[in-house]
Structures are given as structure tokens and as C-alpha cells.
């Protein structure tokens, strides 16, 4: 029988109490990893960790990714509980959609801070740990919105485009330490957040997808697994679109 792809590795995943982050955690555990889930709600993230098997496989830690000290504590929990950090997935995010005319400065600042500063915090702090072992994989979640720009998302599109630039710059900085940094750009994925869209908006987006359907969270998790494991050992600074062909 083949060895699990993430056997004996420890992964830290932000925004992991539900949706894409939780699906990535499930997939990583199935491939032999131990995971540390970070999320804003302490009770919710601890319950998610219990569903994944509890301390032998997963722990949950409250983390506000815009807070440098919180990210330090999240990574320290991985070191204290499992002895290392082999994979970092920066997935935490929020939306505050509005047109430029109606968007407030606070709505802009919140989205850019959570996505872009949060990813920067997770990338730089995980890399500082990984460089000691001369190995590691960092996976950053961007979005199709960061490639094409979507109406009502000047904040989100800007932040997600920024994650691409951040990932490429970081990949160049840490490659000589044996650390790889890659990004994923999901398209329309079926999550609680997207399913809350008005039906007319959902249907309009569906017309743009050649495969004719929305993606599932597990289809993002599979790509996150690929980027975390040795199957992608010669890839860094790449951006993988998982969009069903939408807006290619």
C-alpha cells in the first residue's frame, strides 16, 4: 500500500472551521497529516477539530489573522502539540461587497486587512519556522476575483490580486531555504457564503462556466493537497486556477 501523501506532517490552516478551510483539513488528515485549525470563533473552531478526530489528529485555536500575536500563538500551538509546521494554508477571508460609490473605508480596510495582511502574517511567520528545517510548503488562497476583478468587489479583488503578488515575491525570498509558496484561485465554489447570493447573481455566474456547474470545496482541497505534498516538489510561485474554465 502506498504511503499517505502527508504522512507525519503538520499543517496549519486558517479560516478552517467551515467551508474550504475545513475541507482542506479533512483531506490533509485523510492523507496522514495532523492539523491545527485557526478561526475567529473559539468554540466553533474547537468543535470543528473534535469532528475531525480531536487532539490525535486536530486541534482548534482561536486566531485573528490580522493580529500578529494571534498568528504567533497559532503556530506555537502546532509546535507545542505536534512538534513542527510543515504546511501552512492561508485561507481566512471575509467579504464586504459594495460598489465603490457605496463602499465605506471600513469595509475596504477590513477585507484588505483580513485577506492580504492575514496572508502576509501567515506566510512570513510560517516561513520563519520552516527555514530552520530547510523545508515547507505554503498554500495561499487567492480568487478568480483577483485575476479579472468583479463588480462590487474592489476591496476583495484588490486583496486577492495582492495575494498573488505576495506569494510570488515570498516564493523568491524563501526558495533557497527549501520552502515553496504557491497560490490557488478558486472560481464559483459551493459554500455557505456563495449560496447566500441572490439567485439571479448565481445564475449569471453559472453562464460563465464551461463545465456547467459550481465547484465543490473538496475540489479546492484536492489542489491544496497537491501543492502541500511532494507531488508538486518543483513548483513554487505558481497560481493554479480552479474555476471550471470560468473566465479563462
Index terms:
seven-stranded parallel β-sheet; globular; 248 residues; 9 helices; alpha/beta; 46% helix; Sc_DH/Rdtase_CS
Short description:
The protein is of the alpha/beta class and 248 residues long.
Q: Assign an overall shape.
A: globular
| Ends apart, CA distance between termini | 38 Å
Mean pLDDT, to the nearest integer, reads 97
Number of helices: 9
**How many DSSP E strands?**
7
- Order of SSEs: EHEHEHEHEHHEHHHE
Assigned CATH superfamily? NAD(P)-binding Rossmann-like Domain
Q: pLDDT under 50 segments (min length 5)? A: none
The proportion of strand residues reads: 15-25%
The CATH architecture is 3-Layer(aba) Sandwich
* Lateral arrangement of strands in the main beta sheet: 3-2-1-4-5-6-7
The top-level CATH class is Alpha Beta
Radius of gyration over C-alpha positions, nearest whole angstrom: 17 Å
Question: What is CATH's topology name?
Answer: Rossmann fold
Largest sheet: 7 strands, parallel
Briefly note the structural class of the backbone: alpha/beta
Number of domains: 1
Helix content: 40-55%
Family: Belongs to the short-chain dehydrogenases/reductases (SDR) family.
GO molecular function: oxidoreductase activity, acting on the CH-OH group of donors, NAD or NADP as acceptor
Organism: Nocardia mexicana
Domain Ketoreductase: 9-192
Amino acid at each position: 500500500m502506498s504511503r499517505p501523501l502527508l504522512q507525519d506532517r503538520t499543517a496549519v490552516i486558517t479560516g478552517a472551521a467551515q467551508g474550504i478551510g475545513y475541507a482542506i483539513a479533512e483531506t490533509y488528515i485523510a492523507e496522514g497529516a495532523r492539523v491545527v485549525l485557526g478561526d475567529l470563533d473559539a468554540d466553533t473552531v474547537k468543535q470543528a477539530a473534535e469532528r475531525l478526530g480531536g487532539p490525535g489528529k486536530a486541534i482548534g485555536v482561536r486566531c485573528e489573522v490580522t493580529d500578529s500575536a494571534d498568528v504567533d500563538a497559532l503556530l506555537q500551538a502546532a509546535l507545542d502539540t505536534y512538534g513542527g509546521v510543515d504546511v501552512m494554508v492561508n485561507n481566512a477571508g471575509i467579504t464586504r461587497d459594495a460598489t465603490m460609490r457605496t463602499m465605506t473605508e471600513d469595509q475596504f480596510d477590513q477585507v484588505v486587512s483580513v485577506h492580504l495582511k492575514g496572508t502576509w502574517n501567515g506566510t512570513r511567520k510560517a516561513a520563519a519556522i520552516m527555514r530552520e528545517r530547510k523545508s515547507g510548503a505554503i498554500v495561499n488562497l487567492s480568487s478568480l476575483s483577483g485575476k479579472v476583478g468583479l463588480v462590487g468587489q474592489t476591496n476583495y479583488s484588490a486583496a486577492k490580486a495582492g495575494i498573488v503578488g505576495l506569494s510570488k515575491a515570498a516564493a523568491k525570498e524563501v526558495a533557497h531555504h527549501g520552502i515553496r509558496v504557491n497560490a490557488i484561485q478558486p472560481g464559483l465554489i459551493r459554500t455557505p457564503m456563495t449560496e447566500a447570493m441572490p439567485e439571479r447573481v448565481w445564475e449569471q455566474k453559472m453562464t460563465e462556466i464551461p463545465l456547467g456547474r459550481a465547484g465543490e470545496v473538496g475540489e479546492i482541497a484536492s489542489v491544496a493537497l497537491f501543492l502541500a505534498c511532494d507531488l508538486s516538489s518543483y513548483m513554487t510561485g505558481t497560481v493554479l486556477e480552479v474555476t471550471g474554465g470560468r473566465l479563462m
